[in-house]
Amino acid sequence: MNEAQDEGAAPREATAYSWYVLGVLVIVYILNFIDRQIISILALEIKADLNLTDSDMGFLGGAAFAVFYALFGIPLGRLADNWSRVKLLAIGLALWSTMTALSGFARSQLTLTLARMGVGIGEATASPTAYSLISDYFPKRQRATALAIYSSGLYLGGGVSLLIGAKISKVWNAAYPDGGPLGLVGWHAAFLAVGIPGILVALWVATLREPVRGAMDGTPSRSSDRPFAEFFADLSTIVPPFTLLGAARRGLGPLVVNVLVAVGLCSFAWVMIQLTGNLPQWSAVALGYYAVFSWASVLRQKDPATFRLIWGTPAFICTTLGYSMVSLAAYALAFWSAPYAEQVLKLPKDQLAFWLGANGAVSGFLGVIIGGRVADTLRAKNPAGRILVILFGVIAPVLPIWIGYTTPNPVLFYVMNFLAGLFGAAALGAAAATTQDLVLPRMRGTATASFFLGTTLVGLCFGPYMVGQVSDLAGSMVDGKLVGDLRTGILSLIAVAPIAVVLLFYAYKAVPQAEATLAERAGENA
Fold first, then answer.
1. DSSP letter string over 113-171?
2. Are 311 and 90 in contact (CB under 8 A)?
3. What is the pLDDT of residues 471-522, one digit of tens each?
């Protein structure tokens, strides 16, 4: 379908088909988070089987996925702005499902890391395409609600992953106590079982219709005539040593700055590796942040309007980083709550998988839907009203986290996890919609990729790892093996709340002016 076709006749209201598309996208996002989060319920099995530490598992649950998810989200976000979003999403779903299945053949930290990187690359297609599609299927007044409904897949998928992972692992290990065909054990079988169905769903996604880009906002626009040339050009901006060649083409000054940033990040990584002993984590962090700097430098030259509205807009940056503190705690709890319940509270895996899975699914779903509706209501009264919902998502979970991870009572632990998930989830729709409103329609895919740079390179990259590293530091040696202190690791998450409050307070002051001056600052017609 030609996106420019029938531009003037394009509807400005959500239709029944809009809601159908949203339903399909929710299913895709559920699969996204099943494949991403199933490693949590399998963590102790993987840790024992591959002889890993808590910080190693934090890396596998965080940076191994997050860095490549974030980096490929950059060119894939631009491709979503310039090519068929439906086709891109279908291809990405098929890729990440295949890589999840291949995780089921991993025999070492290295092979599992490579598979997790592949999952991250595939999943990088999901939100840039989905956010852009939703923004073109729903008018602005319903956008936070629609994005919140889509985001509910995060919590539903994360919750279901615990149930599926625990059940498959238990059944497989009972049937094959010494290992099954090809020597596969329970956690291998779980990865295979959740990866394969996604390939079939990708065929369903390919049947969706591509909407007219920007028509819902009354600014229909065409896609690029050379989307893949621009995609590979963008890809070259994040892959060393092409980053140095690109900087050299822009002049001696940009090259010197690029080299200095690379040296600075490598030095930082070396220091952190010496302090923590974790080579994969800090190498991935240095690569990720260097690649983002290189890409942003190129974007500033090639598309200054997009750069100004994203990287040059403090309201956008502070909203993204403020919400990233919420996501840091959320990702950490999503990964470590099940291992904590199993290791510290000594709860049976079947029981904790059911209760934590149900908790995560219900609390996340309710929180993100209610938060989206409240955010839209506040937005109608105050251009910065949605920021208040993000602030709530920062402050409200602090007490439930403290109570839940200091009590020995399993019921109170489950209740506090429910409340922490409910309150934290309320912020997502508000943050996503705010960043979408701070850019022009043609920039939404890139804005989404930039938003997810924060939630991944800050939240997912550091959340699971921070808990694991603090756990290892606070742990002790038992029978010659390091046993971590997961309680101390999880409680350390509370320290990020004050940082988020400062960032979001600034965003609350800056958002109205930033949104009111979009076209003027971009130098384009709105």
1. HHHHHHHHHHHTTHHHHHHHHHHHHS-HHHHHHHHHHHHHHHHHHHHHHHHHHHHHHHH
2. no
3. 998 877 776 676 778 999 999 999 999 999 999 999 999 998 988 888 788 7
Phi/psi class of residue 481: alpha, beta or left (left: φ > 0; alpha: ψ in -120 to 50)? beta
pLDDT of residue 26: 94
Separation of alpha carbons 421 and 360, rounded Å: 6
To the nearest 10°, the Cα dihedral for 393, 395, 401, 402? 180
CA distances from 440 to 132, 307, 435, 517, 525 (A): 11, 12, 10, 11, 9
SS3 109: helix
What DSSP letter does each residue of 421-466 carry, written as one string? Answer: HHHHHHHHHHHHHHHHHTS-GGGHHHHHHHHHHHIIIIIIHHHHHH
Break the chain down into helix, strand, coil percent, rounded to 5: 80, 0, 20
Residue 9 has pLDDT above 80, yes or no: no
Tokens matching residue 38: 């199933």
pLDDT tens for residues 232-244?
877 778 888 888 8
The Cα angle at residue 221 between residues 526 and 144, in degrees rounded to 5: 65
Q: Write out pLDDT tens, residues 364-377.
A: 888 988 998 899 89
Please give the Cα distance from 488 to 419 (Å, whole number). 20
pLDDT tens per residue across span 43-64? 999 998 999 999 999 999 999 9
**Confidence (pLDDT) at 140:** 78
Determine the Cα–Cα distance for residues 126 and 360; give it in Å rounded to an integer.
Answer: 21
DSSP 210: P
**What's the first-to-final CA gap in the chain, in angstroms?**
25
At 324, which amino acid appears? Answer: S
Q: Which residues pair with residue 483 across a beta bridge?
A: 476
